[in-house]
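Appendix B, record 7
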Amino acid sequence: MRRIGPDFIDYWQGSCGSSPRSRFGIRFRDGRIWVVRKLGDEPANTYGIGYPIPVEIETLPAYVRMVVDNHLLNYPTSDVLDVLAGTKPFLEALQFPSTRAAAHFYDPLLNPAVR
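Structure tokens (predicted):
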């Protein structure tokens, strides 16, 4: 699932464990990526260091690659690899996703105000 904010994009993996409201993802902002997490009803927060993009996924730490891989397993039409590699500009990715990708855009647990 992809959530677009005013100046960032979050690419979320599927639900974690027994809590469907807890998730991990990748946030793109200001030419960098961070791991982002949402635990229960808390707002999503980034943690760790930001990695500059473009970046080769093989050079990222294993935990970051796991989040990206899980996202792709759940959303195979995602453009996350294109944004990581820099082949799709961030500003282009900030635009609302294509109709095909939009099917995974709405998630009431992460973005309850959007319908």
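Remarks on this record: The first helix runs from residue 62 to 74. Strands lie at 2-4, 9-12, 23-29, 32-38, 45-52.
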